[in-house]
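Please, structure for the following, as tokens.
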Amino acid sequence: MAAAPDGVAGRGMAEDRNRTAQRTGEATATPGFTAMVLAGGLGTRLATCVADRPKALAPIDGEPFLLRLLDQLAAAGCRRAILCTGHLGEQIERELGREHAGIVLEYSREPSPLGTAGALRLALPLLREPAALVVNGDSFCDLDLAGFVAWARERAVEPALVAARSDDASRFGALTIDTAGRVQAFGEKSAAGAAWINAGIYWLPARVLALLPPQHTVSLERQVLPELLPIGLRAFCTEAPFLDIGVPADYAAASAFFAACARRRRRPRGGLLVVDRDGTLIDERNYLADPAAVQLLPGVVDGLRAFAARGYRIAVVTNQSGIGRGYFDEQTLAAVHAELRRQLAAAGITLDGIWHCPHHPDDACACRKPEPLLLVTAMQQLGYAREQCLVVGDKACDIELGTRLGVRTALVRTGYGAGTERDGLCAPDLIVDSLHELARHDARDEVRP
């Protein structure tokens, strides 16, 4: 983030931002950006809980929900926020005023409901930048928002959205995302089960908003985003906690949600542990397609617990050519991964993401290990540099993956690991019997990403 203006006011703004950054635990190095906050919904489903105020001002532990969202924006480097208001919008203006935590606040109020995209089109004259971060004013995703903005800016001409992981997509609708990270379809809300969902966070070029008809009622979710699919809509996938307060049950859970987020942020930040799946986390089984056959290897739970206790985040990067070979499909793989997550969650362990290559080895893709695309994507989306990562696996391709990017590596003797060591197929930084032994080495600073 650029330095604050000189003088007393500048020092006060800098102090506010520092306090906000400490509160939210997010990075502040991203150059300033403008956010457009959709805070004009009628909130009919939440009317039994907060009938006297707009949904964005629903109190969470005595504080309006919208303030938590603005704190997150401030910590990520937001300089201006355009609040798109409507129903009871005057309450939002009275509550927030013209500045919050160093963010200049401006308002665009609908004279009548225009839908989410219509509200953005109405506010477009206030946008002075080529693109904006657009966020829903009634949902929250505890991701590295600055990381998403930086990632999106690298793809300046492309619109993008944040895809959050949900254990039950029936309320939101599942996203179909291809291996290149592009959204292919928006699913119906009736489909249950774990899936990627639209988190209500977007990077939208001004030129896209300018194409919308002014003073028309248009839905961003139902009309605009599906029309962007042929030209390209990128997905930034995160497994960070997600909350939508649009219904009473989820609103009632908001206090516990934010308390859990605060505990998560207070953990010391360690590194990024990047682990292979088969032979490293679970038993090696030929083209595993049965969730019932998922079995954690000895030392995995204790090892991952130890890494997590020291502030590591955990990502899985795995080759799954069974899809390319036609042995099973993406839905089957998702069921296997849901079972893996379930078993780890039962032991108090959370995976921060699973990245897989579905291609046949003959496809010469850029994501099959040891090609680096999946690892680079995981580091970008989780906000880690190469020197902060440790790649662990039982095959030569795992070790070569880390070596190609200059990342520290460890070979485990589980799975194919003993044979890999015996045949001298790679040169890892460390060879261990299990993830638990690796965690003990890490604690003694023998391996430190």
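The radius of gyration is 23 Å. The first strand starts at residue 33 and ends at 39.
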